[in-house]
Design goal:
The chain is α/β, with parallel strands linked by helices. The chain has 15 helices and 16 strands.
Amino acid sequence: MLLIRNIGLLQTPTGHTSRRGSRQGENRKYRNAAVLIDGETIVAITEDGAIPDFPADTETLDAGGRLATPGWVDAHTHLVFGGWRQHEIPLKLKGASYLEILQSGGGILDTVRKTRSIRENDLFERARGFLDEQLRLGVTTTEIKSGYGLDLENELKQLRVINRLNREYAMDVVATYLGAHAVPPEFAGRADEYVDFVCKIVLPQVARGNLAQFCDVFCETGVFSAEQSRRILETARSLGLGLKIHADEIDALGGSELAGELGAVTAEHLIATTDAGIDALSKGNVTACLLPQTSLYLNKPFARARDMIGKDVAVAVATDFNPGSCPSLNLQFCVNLAYLKYRMTPEEALTAVTLNAACAIGLGEKLGSVEVGKQADLTIWDADGMELLCYRMGSNLARTVVKKGKVVVK
């Protein structure tokens, strides 16, 4: 067993479902707390200096009067890829847009070439290094999308790597199939035929192999239309996969409305979402997974988080780590931006990177809050409250990380 004692403040959302509207800002706060863990499970929480009964051989961890929260959850990454894209900087400085670079054969397609050329084991080792970085930043669970293979062989290669990371690494890792990330060169000018390929060839193999929990699609100008996205998502749903959609990142093409209509688990990005899109998300109980670092990196507006919360849309916040539009794994910086640019309260921001993020990847029943019966994932911070984590910028404040009841960073 493990006893974490001398927690100055234990701050956590509560429950097993995402928190919407005013409830997003509701956190349970235990002062001078202790948490008792048996194996991987939380079995007792006390406060006001009380200590739960524990066996004599229990390991003890002194939190030193610091803040403890649930382990953070990064609900949107693309961290299995080959190469980098720093060579695009001169193009961007000259004013080339994200879509212009993609349409010229760069961007995602550049990463596709590099990912196709890297061996599976090398891809695994590279990705494991990124997970090490996430853990040190206080993140204990992550979602990873494919989408840099865009053919059968290399999409399955990416998904095998993601599943191996989940089996062999300390973190919980959730796989999302994103074969509809771009139209590959061999299907140039034939997007509908590529959609056929995704629906008839790749998705059935992904489902048969149980290689992904979710299917995502990039619904955007010059990539996939709302109707093409609908076909992919409806096929994925028929095969038992949960639905996600990259929607309204640059243009509002109806992706958020489609997410609401289909009851997708999440709609992600949502930079350009309209009032109608927000209403659709609310009606469909779709979690808005917002990616503030991408807005910053692309010099784009920030998503309308306050309007979404005001319309009872559950908001999660994630990094979008990828080699093109967001080369950063720092979820702590996302919390800074959620406060500064989304105007989210510290309590709302904590819910966005814990419980709502866990629910966004299908793990809200066991993760995302510190409660008796849930998995023992906690991060201890060099802070006295969430206000300091929102306020301090550029420093890693994660002090100690506990994953499945074991201290994995100290």
